[in-house]
Please model this.
Amino acid sequence: MLQHMIQDTEALIALPRQRVFFQTDEQGRIVMCNDLMTEFFGCAEAVVNGTWFPGLAEEGERATAVHLLTGALEGCPDTGYVAFNTPSGRKLAQVTLVPRFQNGQPAGTFGFIHDATDRVEKTRRLIESERQYKELYERYQFVSQATSDVLWDWNLETNEIYINQSFTRLLGFELPTRHVSELWLENLHPDDRDRVLRKQLAAVRDPGQALWEDQYRFFHADGSLLYLQDRAVIIRDASGRPLRMIGAVHDVTQRTVSEEAIRLSEEKYRLLFYQSPEPKWIFRREDLRFVEVNDAAIDHYGFSREEFLSMTVIDLQPPSERERVRQFLFSDFMPAGRMQNLSRHQTKDGSVIAVELTTHGIYLDNGYHVLVNANDVTDKLALERKVLEEKITVQKEIARTIINTQEKERSEIGKELHDNVNQILTTAKLYIENIGYYPTQQADYVSKSAGLLQRAITEIRNLSKALVTPVLYDIGLRATLDELIGQYRTLHLFTVHFSFDIAEERIENGLQLTVYRILQEQLNNIVKHARASKVSIDIRGESERLRICIADNGVGFDLQQARRGLGLHNMKNRIEVFKGEMEMTSAPNMGCSICISFPLS
Model:
C-alpha cells in the first residue's frame, strides 16, 4: 500500500506542471507547492510554505476553504470555488482537495487550484445577458401590444420581417400571408416610392449610419391616404455589415394635415398683410419697435423698410405729441382685443396726416405684438369740414331768407292795410261822419258805408287766407289745391290745366304743405310777371319720387337774373328741406317751366 501511495503522490506532484499544486499537513498548513503556486499568489515558496491554506482565501470565502479542507482531512475529496486576493487582483479559482494518507491514516491533503476567473465571468455575463434579453423581449412584447405604432423587425440576412398587430389596426390590412415588403411597396405612394427606397438603401449601405428616418404617404386598405413617420435603428456587426433593422411606423396624418392647413392659412394672411392697399405694420409691445411693415406703409409714409425697422411707433407722431402718445401706450393701452382710435402721423417729408388706427393684439414666437391697420382720413376729414361749413352757410342763408321773407310779408301786409283796407275804412268813416250833416242822404251814406265795410272785410279775409296755413289736412291736398287754383281762375287772367295722379297718403304732411306753398308762390309769380294766357300744372308719382311741373306761355325771363329773386330763393329753400331737386327752363318770350322732384319716404 505504501508503494501505491508513493506512486500516487509522485503522479500528483507531476500535475503541477500544468496546474497549481500544493500539499498540506494534518493541520492544513502548506508544506510544499510548485512554481505555478508561487506565480498564482505572487510570492516566494518560502512565504507560502507554513501558511494555513484557508488563510490565503478572501475573508468572505474562508468558510468555503475550511469546509473543503475539513472534508479532505476526514478522507473525503471535495471541489469548490474560492476567491483569492492576489497582487494581480481578485481571482476566482476552482479548488480541489484530496486526502493524503500516511501509514493508513490521513496525514494531510493534496490541493489543486485552477484559475476560473475568465470562465466564471463569461458564464456570469452570459447569464446576465440572457436575463436582460428575456426582460427586453417581455418588454418588447408588452410595448408591441400596447402601442398604436406599427413595430417591425427586418432580418437583412434572411429578408424576414416581423410586424406586430398594429399593422392591422393602423393600416387596415390583415397580417400578410405573403411577404410584407411586397404589400408595403404596393401601397407606398408612387410619388414617394423612389425617394424612400433610395434613402433607405443608402442608410443600410453606409457602415457609419445607425439610424434611418423618413416620412411618406401610404394608402390605407380602404383607399384613404395616410401620412406615416417611419424610424428605424440599423444593427451591424463589428465590421459594419448590416444585420437587422428594427423600426416603428407612426401615423402623423392629422398632424400633417393640420400643419398644412396652418401653413396655407399663414400664407393667406401673409399675402393679405403684404398686398393690402392700406398701410399695415406690426410692432413689439415691449419696446414699441417695428418688426414688420407692408409695401403700402412704405409708399404712404416714405420711409424705407430698413428705416421702419429701426424706428418705434412713437417716431411716427409729430414731435409735440410723442410724449403724450408714449404715456398712452404704456399706461392706458389695452393689450387684448380690438381697438380703434384717431391719431396724427408725420411722414418722412414732414407732412402731418390724420389716420384712423385699428389695432389687434397678437402673440408671436418672441412675445406679444400689435398688428396695426392705418387708414389715411386726411381728405375725408377735410371734406367733412367743407360739407359742415357749407351746411352752416346754407343754414345761415336760410335764416337770412326767412327773416327777409318775414320782413317782406310784413311790408306787404302793411302796404295792403295802408293802401287798400285803410283807405276803404277811411272812406266808410267819412260817410258815417257826414250822416249828421246831410240828413237827406242818410240812407245812401249808410248803404255806401256798409258796402265799404263789406269790401274791407273781404280784403282782410283774402289777406289772411294768403298768410294762414291752409286747412289741407282737413280736406286733403287735392281739394286744397283745387281751391287755390280756383281763386286764380276767378281772376280771368289765364286758363289753368291741372292734373293730379298720386295717392295723397304717400305724401307726408310736411311735404304736402311745401307743395302747396310752392304752387302758391309760382302762381303769384305768373300773375305778377308772366303775362301768360295758359298755365299747366302736373303733379304725379313716379316710382319712389313725387314730381311737380308748372309751365306757362308767358314772356319768360333770363335765368341768370331770375336766380337773384327772393321768391325763387324761397322756393329753393323749401325744396332743399325735403331733399328735393329743381330744374328750371326759361328764356325771354319763351315762357317758363319749373320741374321739381322729391323722394318719397
